[in-house]
Amino acid sequence: MQQAVLQQFEDIGYDVVLVVPRSGFAAFDPSRTAGFGRTGGQFDPSQIMSRMSASSSSSGVDTDRLLEQVPQLEEAGNLTTRILAVESDAVGGFLRVTSPSASFLEAFSPILGGFVLEQGTGLEDANAREVVIGSRSAESLEVTVGDTVVIGNARFEVVGILAPAAESSQDNPLDALGASQGGAGDAASLLLRGLSNTDDTLFVLEEQASRLGEGSDSYSTTVTRVRTGASVTEAQRAIEAALEEQGTSGTAVSVEEIADSIQGTLGMVETVLASIAAVALIVGAVGLMNTMYTAVLERTREIGVLKAVGARDGQVLLLFVIDSGLMGLIGGVLGLGVGTLFSVFGTRLLGPVLGVAGFAPVFTATLVFGVLLLSFLLGGLAGVWPAWRASRLDPVEALSSE
Fold first, then answer.
1. Residue 18 near residue 253 (C-beta atoms within 8 A)
2. Distance (Å) of CA 149 to CA 80, 92, 308, 341, 364
3. Among the four 2, 42, 251, 286, which has the fewest Cβ within 10 Å?
4. Could you give the C-alpha distances from 337 to 37, 340, 341, 347, 349, in angstroms and in order?
5. Nearest to 334 by CA among 379, 273, 382
6. Between β-strands 35-38 and 16-20, what pairing exists: parallel, antiparallel or unpaired?
7. 74-92: per-residue pLDDT in tens?
């Protein structure tokens, strides 16, 4: 779980700082803001629009000026999201339209799930009315490369279709954890979760999108990258000071802060799981100790024979400790096999239902070796007392036992 979540942040980069509005944040959840109806049919957009925020939220940051004001920054770009009417020859409805700049796509594509094309080309000409469509939106609109769609009142040519996002809305690792920071950090976390799902989005360069949807609700954010060697914390303070100079309301939140917050949540989950595992180990050790004690009682005559032919107490003790350790090792091998099967098939079968389909089990050599070693040591430890009892038996009494 932790590796799946943190890998997403590593792809984005811990040197990235987001500028989000201090208020009025509206999360554009594709499941709540997308709807379609057959062209010419009775599609009522009111059900969609009533769920949207009544006010626009925008960082309104002048990125060129921001780069001049904050020398710690290397790159910056604005990203605006709107819900607009979209219509193809077959269907019409409301979809999320995201408008990045060309520089944003070049520098911050991991935030958009990598922006990997499955068909066609990317957004290259800022003066052309071109659109790149997410895989699920292309399927819903029934369009392919070369077709045209109407966004707002303008006609755009479909130049590319994106590959399915690696973290869609139903299997994003961040969704399984939920937002955990609150305030602006919550907004930034929701932003990352939403933008990583490109399946339900249309992408138009900001030079063209600025002419669309005037007066419509929108959400804008600014993404910046801190120069190598510069302090992210100092850059955040400088950004917020620069925003005040620009007369813009916004809060700088680093990807590192979001990752640290989620790591705290993961730490709590791991603590609970470790507690459950500890109880299971104790129960297993007690069961193994009882089994070895029964084995000593059943093999009393054998122990007497061993001691009668010259076996020392230490040898008998070591024999039963190794026996107990091997029993623990066999249990560890079986548990590792069953756990592997449950991890692989459980993730694939139950993941979509539980919202964790983006997770994949990770098995390292260190983990496997550690499990087997712990199983052997725990088994041996559980058998110490029965083995000590066996080593202390009097050979004459042991041979005369039934």
1. yes
2. 20, 9, 94, 46, 48
3. 42
4. 49, 5, 6, 15, 18
5. 379
6. unpaired
7. 888 888 888 888 888 888 8
The sign one gets for the Cα dihedral 363, 336, 173, 32 is: positive
Q: Please write the tens of the pLDDT for every residue from 180-223.
A: 444 455 555 555 555 666 788 888 887 777 667 555 567 778 88
Q: Are 194 and 270 in contact (CB under 8 A)?
A: no
Q: Does the pLDDT value for residue 31 go beyond 60?
A: no
Place of tokens 């992210």: 232
Please give the Cα distance from 260 to 180 (Å, whole number). 10
Cα-trace Rg, the chain: 31
- Asked whether the beta carbons of 356 and 173 are under 8 A apart, the reply is yes
Mean pLDDT of the residues in the chain:
75
| Cα 364 to Cα 360: distance, rounded to the nearest angstrom | 13
Identify the H or E element spanning 218: strand 218-226
pTM over 0.70: no
Cα–Cα distance, 149 to 350 (Å, whole number): 37
Partners of 252 in the beta sheet? 19
> Distance between CA 102 and CA 195 in Å, rounded?
16
**pLDDT > 70 fraction of the chain, expressed in percent and rounded:** 72
- The answer to whether the CB of 338 falls within 8 A of the CB of 378 is no
Could you tell me which of 140, 190, 149 has the C-alpha nearest to residue 21?
Answer: 190
Q: Where are the domains of the chain?
A: 2-263, 299-400
CB within 8 Å of 342: residues ≥ 6 apart: none
